[in-house]
Amino acid sequence: MKTLSILLYLVAIAASPLAAGLRVSPVAITLAGPEATQQLLVSNDRQSSGGRDVTCMAQLSVGEPGIATIDAHGLVHAVGDGRTEIVVRDEGELRRVPIDIRGVEMPRPVVFEYDIMPVLVKTGFVPLVSRTTVSVKFTAARP
Asked: What is the pLDDT of residues 53-72, one digit of tens each?
């Protein structure tokens, strides 16, 4: 009996008007750094959309373009530090997604050990050696 009542409850929730409609994922965005991006996914569970991805069909806009931008495919780019929101509109429904962006105006410094050395090792320019014995000598080729 208890299982049947739980099942009926779940069916009622799934059929309720609150379960259908415009959904945006993620519901909040936090970006850190000048190269930070986040993909937004918009889906609509209404009859006309059939519960599918409508990101490219939805109207996407940013409250403050000096802080973030969003393209037609839902990719959010950090532009400046601050807080704003993305407004998503589809079939008369509206959702707002808050955005918090930090570290754009003061990016982290480039560290040779973590940013340059892996590239040199991957290209074969420098053999992989232990962290404590790195000794690289750069010389210019003579004509």
From this structure: 899 999 999 999 999 999 99
